[in-house]
Amino acid sequence: MYPQPYPYGASQNFGGQSAGMGRSPFKKMYKTCLKNKNQHVQLMLMDGAAYTGFIEYVDQQNVYFAIPYVEETQENRNPEAQYDVRGYQIYRCMFPLHAVAGVNGAF
Predict the structure, then answer these.
(1) What DSSP assignment string belongs to 54-97?
(2) pTM of the entire structure?
(3) pLDDT tens string 26-83
(4) Which of 26, 66, 76, 80 has the fewest C-beta atoms under 10 angstroms from its C-beta?
């Protein structure tokens, strides 16, 4: 059983609205992230950090983000290849939805 957020199983009702995403001030950001799912975007956080990658999944609390990068090492480098995909990695991270300041698409 999951822990109850309020004592004795009582739920708090703010302003007559049901609990969940309907009363959240982050509903617009949730919808924006959902609309840009699986697209190449820049995710800006409240602390000023910006990350470029792909939104893999969004729930009502978190944004799951994939950042592709290439590790440049001598063993992964092929001088004859124009596009060398060896060494291609994906760094996956999760950001709280309330920390997201904006999503910039169309790269």
Answers:
(1) EEEEE-SSEEEEEEEEE---GGG--TT-SS--TTEEEEEEEEEG
(2) 0.64
(3) 789 999 999 999 999 999 999 999 999 999 999 989 999 999 887 766 565 556 655 5
(4) 80
